[in-house]
Specification:
Elements: H1 2-34, E1 42-43, H2 45-52, H3 56-69, E2 72-75, E3 78-81, H4 83-89, H5 100-115, E4 118-125, E5 128-135, E6 150-152, H6 157-163, H7 168-176, H8 190-203, E7 206-209, E8 216-225, E9 228-238, H9 244-264
Antiparallel strand pairs: 1-3, 2-3, 4-5, 4-9, 5-6, 7-8, 8-9
Helix pairs in contact: 1-2, 1-3, 2-3, 5-9
Length: 266
C-alpha cells in the first residue's frame, strides 16, 4: 500500500511540475507578443529575445508554437503578428458592434466634418490611454498616433479628461507610476496635475498644450456615465491653428449627446 501511495505522490508531483512549466511557457509566449507593440512590426529572433529578455533558443521554440497557432507569421527569416490577432482584437467590448467605438463613430465623423481636425476616441487603462478610433483627413495636421496605441495619461488631453473623473486611488496610482517628461511643457509635478484635474471637473475640458508633442495642441472632453468617464474624445491640431473655446464647447455638447445615447442602450 505504501508503495502505491508513494507512486501516486510521485505522479502528482510530476504533473504539477509539468503544469508549472507549461504555465511559464504560456507567460513567455505572451511576452513575445508584447514586443511587437513597439514601432517595428517585423522583428528577427535575436531582437525579439533581447526585448523580451528570453534566450534565443527559447524564443525559437515559442515562436514555432505561435506560428502553428496562427498568432505570429514568418516574414522571410523574421516574424510579425498575424491577421488573427487583428480579428481577436476586434472582439473586445469596445470594438464589437454596438460597443463604444461603433456607437461613437458617427459622432467622430460629424466632429471631423465640422472642424477638419484630427479626432480621437480613447479609453483609460491604468496610467495610459488606449486609442480606440481616429479620424483624419488629407489636409489635417499630422498626429503621431495609431489606433490601438498607448500613450501616457498625464500628458494627454484624453488622459486628463478621464483622470479628472476617476477615483482618488486611481489618480494616485497613475501618479505613482511616474510622470514622464515628453516635452518642456509636460506637467511633471503631482500638485500641478491635481490642480488641473480639479479645473477639468468644473469645465469638462482638458488640454494638452504641446505637453506630448511640440507644435501640437489637443483638447478633450470625457464621455460620462454615472459620474465616471468611460472614454473621451479629442481634437488635435497645430498649436494656435484653431479656436480652443469654440471647439471645446462643441466637444462638450457632442460627448454629452453620446453619453445619453449610451445610457439609453443600458
Amino acid at each position: 500500500m505504501s508503495i502505491t501511495v508513494e507512486h501516486q505522490r510521485t505522479k502528482e508531483c510530476d504533473a504539477r511540475q509539468q503544469e508549472s512549466g507549461g504555465t511559464a511557457s504560456v507567460v513567455r509566449a505572451l511576452q513575445l507578443l508584447d514586443v511587437f507593440m513597439g514601432d517595428q512590426p517585423v522583428l528577427g529572433v535575436s531582437e525579439i529575445g533581447r526585448r523580451a529578455g528570453i534566450p534565443t533558443s527559447t524564443v525559437h521554440r515559442l515562436l514555432s508554437h505561435l506560428v502553428k497557432g496562427g498568432f505570429v507569421a514568418k516574414d522571410g527569416s523574421n516574424y510579425r503578428l498575424s491577421g488573427k490577432l487583428f480579428e481577436l482584437g476586434n472582439q473586445v467590448a469596445h470594438s464589437r458592434p454596438m460597443g463604444l467605438r461603433d456607437l461613437a463613430a458617427p459622432f467622430l465623423g460629424e466632429l471631423f466634418g465640422a472642424t477638419r481636425l484630427t479626432t480621437h476616441l480613447a479609453v483609460l487603462d491604468g496610467p495610459q490611454v488606449v486609442l480606440v478610433d481616429k479620424v483624419v483627413g488629407l489636409s489635417t495636421h499630422p498626429a503621431r498616433t495609431v489606433v490601438g496605441g498607448r500613450y501616457p495619461a498625464v500628458c494627454t488631453s484624453l488622459g486628463k479628461a478621464m483622470l479628472a473623473f476617476a477615483s482618488e486611488d486611481a489618480v494616485q496610482a497613475v501618479i505613482a507610476a511616474g510622470m514622464p517628461r515628453r516635452t518642456r511643457f509636460t506637467l511633471t509635478h503631482p500638485s500641478a496635475l491635481l490642480q488641473e484635474l480639479a479645473q477639468i471637473r468644473n469645465t469638462r475640458l482638458a488640454y494638452d498644450r504641446e505637453e506630448a508633442t511640440l507644435g501640437q495642441t489637443c483638447i478633450a472632453a470625457p464621455i460620462l456615465r454615472n459620474g465616471a468617464a468611460i472614454g473621451a474624445i479629442s481634437f488635435s491640431g497645430a498649436t494656435n491653428s484653431y479656436d480652443l473655446a469654440n471647439h471645446g464647447a462643441t466637444l462638450v455638447r457632442v460627448t454629452t449627446q453620446l453619453a445619453r445615447q449610451l445610457g439609453r442602450r443600458g
